[in-house]
């Protein structure tokens, strides 16, 4: 977030580049034996940026950010992101949206781009608010193990562009000269083309994010956690997906799937397939296998060309002893893992039906078991266990033992710990994970 009172023009600060600590010359293979000073690079970037800890405390800011707010670094570093900033009451919902986006990026590991948001800053007179619009991007920072350990928040003041476009739109409606309006809207042809291109890319990314990987539901008595790690660092979209939502009957439906491909076309097909499935499942009392069969027929009839592996499960309402019935189906997908309350882990091996999208065939089969308080269901895509040098079956054979070790060492951090243990930073495939823990009637079991 980037809100602060407009400070006096005389406010100065020591440039972050001069605050940087030089990195030791530790790599003799580098030119002149000098390693890059990445903090100095960060300070020199022209776009305003803030580096945040996982608790949203400010770790560092670059010069462009300080120049934009006209505040010294000591006013921000070491403090919570929004500490000390004053917001108009009308902007609170938009401020909360930015914080929620940062928390989602921390959870999912995906870049989020926010449409231009109006968040005003205090004026020089008491009670005065000055209109400002911000273009924001929230970016995960991974460590060597693939865990999100920091967040990079980019915020640019686009007030002039937004206000000029708004004025031009009004002028056009009241019939002013088209050439004048065009000049005002674009603020010069090069700026206009850049802004239009940026807007198109941002809209496409936002539409994909909004339609594909929404936050999971949190039904009473269950704790659902999700993670997504894309193979592509550039697009941050791919063919893997997760979903977790409450059905109209009160049951909980969870899915992971993997559409063939890792590009934006796979992501688009995946988004269509996911939408069809959740639409059919929401108001249905049918089993997961029947829902997959209906999804396949509907997708084929609607022209959705996608082939995917899918694991889908329905978790029933609690019984008298808080046990829940788990019903699942696997369409060419790795088996779910069940972590029992005592820390033991079993793969739910069962009949593996044909992939989704391959056309007519035998009716898919459901499988059932019981979930007890303290049990955790784990659904995942094959990117968690399969490597070029490790066959899928070998990875599955080792998975229960690894999950048991992770549960013993990191019981409250299962998904992040699994990603750190199993998924290399230079991954070859997308990874989607969903965990569903059955809570004890009086609260968490862990």
TrEMBL record:
rRNA-binding listed as a keyword: no
Region span, Disordered: 1-34
PANTHER family, per database record: STAGE II SPORULATION PROTEIN E, STAGE II SPORULATION PROTEIN E-RELATED
UniProt entry tagged with the keyword Ligase: no
Name of the molecule in the record: Serine phosphatase RsbU (Regulator of sigma subunit)
Protein keywords: Hydrolase
Pfam families reported for this sequence: PAS_4 (PF08448), SpoIIE (PF07228)
All residue ranges annotated as the PAS domain in the record: 36-104
Domain PPM-type phosphatase: 222-438
């Amino acid at each position: 977030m980037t809100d602060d009172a407009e400070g006096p023009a005389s406010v100065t600060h020591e440039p972050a580049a001069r605050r940087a600590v030089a990195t030791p010359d530790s790599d003799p293979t580098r030119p002149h034996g000098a390693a890059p000073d990445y903090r100095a690079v960060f300070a020199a970037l022209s776009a305003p940026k803030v580096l945040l800890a996982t608790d949203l405390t400010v770790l560092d800011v670059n010069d462009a950010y300080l120049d934009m707010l006209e505040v010294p670094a000591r006013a921000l570093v070491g403090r919570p992101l929004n500490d000390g900033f004053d917001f108009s009451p009308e902007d609170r919902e938009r401020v909360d949206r930015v914080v929620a986006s940062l928390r989602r990026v921390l959870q999912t590991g995906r870049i989020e781009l926010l449409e231009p948001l109006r968040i005003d800053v205090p004026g020089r007179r008491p009670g005065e608010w000055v209109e400002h619009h911000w273009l924001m991007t929230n970016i995960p920072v991974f460590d060597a193990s693939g865990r999100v350990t920091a967040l990079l928040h980019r915020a640019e003041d686009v007030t002039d562009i937004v206000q000029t476009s708004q004025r031009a739109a009004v002028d056009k409606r009241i019939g002013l000269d088209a050439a004048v309006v065009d000049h005002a809207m674009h603020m010069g042809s090069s700026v206009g083309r850049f802004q239009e291109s940026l807007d198109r890319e941002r809209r496409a990314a936002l539409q994909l994010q909004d339609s594909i990987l929404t936050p999971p539901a949190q039904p009473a008595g269950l704790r659902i956690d999700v993670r997504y790690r894309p193979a592509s660092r550039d697009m941050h979209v791919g063919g893997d997906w997760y979903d977790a939502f409450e059905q109209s009957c009160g049951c909980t439906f969870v899915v992971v799937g993997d559409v063939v491909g890792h590009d934006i076309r796979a992501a688009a097909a995946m988004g269509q397939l996911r939408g069809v499935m959740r639409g059919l499942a929401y108001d249905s009392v049918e089993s997961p296998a029947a829902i997959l069969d209906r999804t396949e027929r509907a997708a084929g009839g609607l022209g959705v060309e996608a082939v995917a592996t899918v694991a889908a499960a329905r978790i029933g309402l609690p019984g008298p002893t808080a046990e829940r019935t788990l019903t699942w189906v696997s369409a060419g997908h790795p088996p779910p893992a069940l972590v029992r309350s005592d820390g033991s882990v079993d793969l739910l091996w069962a009949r593996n039906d044909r992939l989704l999208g391959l056309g007519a065939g035998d009716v898919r089969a459901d499988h059932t078991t019981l979930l007890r308080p303290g049990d955790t269901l784990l659904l995942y895509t094959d990117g968690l266990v399969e490597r070029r040098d490790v066959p899928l079956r070998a990875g599955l054979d080792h998975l229960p033992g690894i999950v048991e070790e992770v549960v013993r060492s990191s019981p409250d951090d299962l998904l992040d710990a699994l990603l750190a243990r199993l998924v290399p930073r230079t991954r070859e495939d997308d990874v989607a994970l969903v965990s569903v823990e059955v809570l004890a009637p009086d609260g968490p079991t862990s």
